[in-house]
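Re: the multi-chain job from yesterday

Posting the exact lines I submitted so nobody has to dig through the queue logs.
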Amino acid sequence: MKAIWTITRRELQSFFDSLMAYIMLIAFLGFSGFFTWLFGADIFFVKQASLQSFFSIAYWTLFFFIPALTMRQFAEENRAGTLELLLTKPVSDWQVVLGKFMSTFVLILIALALTLPYYITVATLGPIDHGAVWSGYLGLILMSAAYISIGIFTSSFSNNQIVSYLLALFIGIFFQIIFSLLSSNFGGFIGEVLNFFSVSTHFDSISRGVIDTKDLLFFFSLIFLGLILTEANLSKKRL
Amino acid sequence: MDIVVENLTKRFGAQRAVDNISFKVKTGEILGFLGPNGAGKTTTMKAIVTYLTPNEGDIHVGNFSIHQNPDEIKKLIGYLPENNPLYVDMPVIDYLKFVAELQGIEKSKIKDKILEMITTCGLEGEKHKKIGELSKGYKQRVGLAQALIHNPQVLILDEPTSGLDPNQIVEIRELIKKIGREKTLILSSHILAEVEATCDRILIINKGKIVADGTSKDLRKQSEGREILKVKIEDGDKNDIFKSLQGLSSIGIVDFMKKDESAFEIQSKPGISSRKEIFKLCVGKGWTLTEMTPIETKLEDIFRELTMN
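And the result, structure tokens for all chains:
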């Protein structure tokens, strides 16, 4: 546990030292703020005290930002050869994977915490469904964790950050939108299955305030699968 | 802490990088791992530090096996990988702290340990700089500091002086000698002088197999038997001298020295010395023998002989 936290802290430090964290925070708050308050189907347009417009914007901004944070994590260590150094210290592959996962996760939590003023502001404007807001945040957190796990996995494949970014987007876009588009085309059993694999389906249902075990199970399996495959990828290097 | 390598084999696809090698390193010994590029040095070292899993064979460090107790071994070993990879965006002090924490050093002792490493490795002036800003020699010191910070009993250094300038090489060599006194140390290199200067024992490896094992003296003796002399004879016709020398029973090959007309390079037949016969020949013919110097076989020659096809 201590080793995981040591690695997490180093990764976080490196996010902030390289300005990556600041750029990500500012860009995320800027984008989501702009579309939540000023442009398009924003809060004033909907004329309801609801954060729904923020959640649907954040759903997409996080989708693009998360791979940009995770792309470095293993790719850079592979390129520089520091992974060898890390894995010959008394830490397990799992601890390394979890440490890296946690660092991006903590950064996303910070980003989401910084949007809490939106919640407070909207709450003063009118009657707000508090349950829906919190479950919306929960949806964003789960979705982020799933994409972090995918991003870390694609990062462990390559020693090129751009390749790992694009690969993460490529895999992510299926969960993000393609499965759900396909499912409406197919219908029937195949449609059901595709629908189950779509992140948007589960995210929508959670952010509407319905927390179903089916949705939780989906996100946790996706997170777990990404981490397991990353770990497998690391131990493959030893063979 | 002894290191015992038993029947280690590591294949990459069809290629055998390391082919059934066994050796032992005793506590306090400095072993030089020598071989041409691609001979299997790095692969063997990576197997010892548990980074690579061998296809066959086992390695014991102390009582621990790389298969059963890799985590225990990781705690005992300090490792400097080839090319010395480091987090270039971290300041030296932060990096050493990170490594100390990973090694599980108690929180209260970390600060002292870092200071100790900074003094030992001569990093006082650079401790707040980012590692990426340091010169190669200082980076190498940081690499050594991170390998030494938990006071490991076993040190594995893969080409610790590659890419350094001659002054830095001497400094790092001194440092290695200083810290290597109480530890079991394996270092690899393809520079012979380096291995000869720092190591108690030399292991030459070629194409995944051990081709020589012993002290530099032992290795020299192996290729001795053929004594090589530089002999200078004056007051005689040089062709005459040449023919007479060739006629001696103890002499194998005679050659003119390139630069000096009256000097010869003489290789004796295996196992015997030709010195007495040469002297007697000169006395008999009335020539003046002005020089007779044994030429020491260089480690380079032995190395080349063992590793060339």
